[in-house]
Automatic annotation (TrEMBL):
<feature type="signal peptide">
    <location>
        <begin position="1"/>
        <end position="21"/>
    </location>
</feature>
<protein>
    <recommendedName>
        <fullName>CUB domain-containing protein</fullName>
    </recommendedName>
</protein>
<dbReference type="Pfam" id="PF26080">
    <property type="entry name" value="CUB_animal"/>
</dbReference>
<dbReference type="InterPro" id="IPR058698">
    <property type="entry name" value="CUB_metazoa"/>
</dbReference>
<feature type="domain" description="CUB">
    <location>
        <begin position="238"/>
        <end position="410"/>
    </location>
</feature>
<keyword id="KW-0732">Signal</keyword>
Length: 414
């Protein structure tokens, strides 16, 4: 961080003292000389770095002088640097630009109908590598629920042959996206994502944070806190991670969890490896916490694999190039079971049966692959099965798959 410094002219009392000291000048006495050195300054220099600070209330900001804070269009939210500075908070809304750490992007002037709302976050200095966006509040329209078939997909590509698909799960009404220059960028999201966060590589120019709003009356509300991390920060996420969870144990979930997972995701949920832990283990609290493609009720993850329509693994087309269960899955690289032996599959899909083999709903799956991570992948469409009349009740599109919510813990024993 480039530190700026503050010169403060202290009270007249201090100013007067050096003059009286001057009269007692005695170079032979080192103690007096030293004392004189301290006193003989017209200016008392108070230096403090422009570090992150907390306000007296809930917000956070950067420590600046009162005047600098005003010049930079910030707002003082409390004292810092022993009262010599103010904790200066920055907030922007649609159309705004900020190069300040901990800037808050608010919904202060969003359009009520169709329109967009974009802000630009520029590096606070020339050594910024990542941005962390915390969704303190995030609610916009959810994904499409239109189940009529709009295209046919074969081998993941739209084409004349193949499986009938609908636009269910696509963020067609409202959407949020982040630009990142040439770096890895988070997937486009919509729906309810309060409490979630994403990391993005900092663009050397600026990153655009952009909402596009469709013609809807759904309540929209958001507050996004943007933290800038220097290239040597201990808080950087490992490269390629969409998210980085630093608690030794906790929960992770897919975007818009519980209200339908989203299309076109590649959500890489990474967890910081604690000292002494050699693997991470994942499980589900409830059967409905794992709900990704597949037939209506069967648990088909956990190494068993889908058995319908000749599909033998998740996130892979069947031999005909189709996949009547969709092409969405959770990937746990180099999966092993709790006892430490290799699991037959590293990709999991299926519905409402936990992270499961058919027999064991509350299966625990572990992995030693680093960085510790679970990856949710989804394609652009949900299978409609309209080839069959009526549309199968088991099809992806009619089931609004919740997505995935996982409990994780780290293990130093196995
Ligand atoms: C601000 O408060 C948070 C949460 O209480 C704390 O983790 C953080 O260390 C504080 N930051 C500073 C600069 O004091
Ligand atoms: C931004 O603030 C966070 C505290 O929330 C701090 O960890 C980080 O180092 C700050 N970034 C810069 C570039 O000062
Ligand atoms: C699964 O395991 C978790 C954690 O041990 C526990 O809280 C939960 O009740 C279990 N759920 C089921 C369905 O057995």
């Amino acid at each position: 961080m480039s530190s700026k410094y503050l010169c403060l002219l202290l009270s007249a009392g201090i100013l007067l003292k050096p003059f009286s000291a001057e009269k007692r000048n005695d170079n032979s006495d080192p103690e007096t000389n030293d004392r004189r050195g301290k006193q003989f300054s017209f200016f008392q220099v108070i230096q403090f770095p422009n570090e992150a600070c907390n306000g007296t209330g809930t917000g956070s900001g950067t420590c600046y002088t009162g005047q600098e804070c005003t010049t930079r269009n910030g707002a003082s939210i409390g004292p810092c640097a022993n009262g010599f500075g103010v904790c200066c908070a920055f907030s922007i809304s649609c159309g705004g630009t900020s190069a300040e750490n901990l800037t808050v992007f608010t919904d202060a002037n969003i359009p009520t109908g169709m329109g967009d709302c974009t802000v630009r976050i520029c590096p606070a200095n020339d050594n910024i590598c990542q941005l962390r966006l915390d969704f303190d509040r995030f609610q916009i329209s959810g994904p499409s629920t239109i189940t009529t078939s709009v295209t046919q997909i074969q081998n993941g590509q739209a084409g004349a042959l193949g499986t009938e698909n609908s636009e269910v799960s696509q963020c067609n009404m409202d959407r949020f996206e982040v630009s990142s220059g040439s770096g890895v960028r988070p997937p486009i999201i919509c729906g309810l994502n309060t409490g979630q966060h994403v990391f993005v590589d900092a663009d050397s120019v600026c990153n655009a944070l952009s909402f596009q709003f469709g013609p809807t009356t759904t309540m929209r509300t958001f507050q996004i806190r943007v933290t800038q991390y220097a290239c040597d920060s201990p808080n950087l996420a490992p490269s390629g991670c969409t998210q980085f969870f630093t608690n030794p144990s906790g929960t992770v979930q897919t975007f818009n969890f519980g209200n339908g997972h989203l299309a076109d995701q590649n959500q890489v949920m990474c967890v910081r490896q604690t000292q002494n832990s050699c693997r991470i283990c994942w499980t589900t609290a409830m059967a409905i916490d794992f709900d990704v493609s597949g037939s209506a009720t069967s648990g088909i993850g956990g190494g068993v694999g889908p058995t319908l329509s000749g599909v033998t693994s998740c996130c892979a087309p069947n031999t005909a190039g189709n996949n009547l269960q969709g092409l969405d899955c959770l990937s746990l690289p180099l999966a092993e079971n709790a006892a430490g032996t290799a699991n037959a599959r590293s990709r999991f899909c299926g519905r409402k049966a936990g992270l499961s083999s058919v027999a064991v709903i509350n299966l625990t799956i572990c992995s030693r692959s680093s960085p510790f991570r679970a990856v949710f992948r989804s394609n652009g469409f949900e299978v409609t099965d309209s080839v069959v009349t009526p549309v199968l009740a088991t099809s992806e599109s009619t089931n609004k798959d919740n997505g995935v919510k996982l409990i994780y813990f780290q293990d130093s024993v196995n």
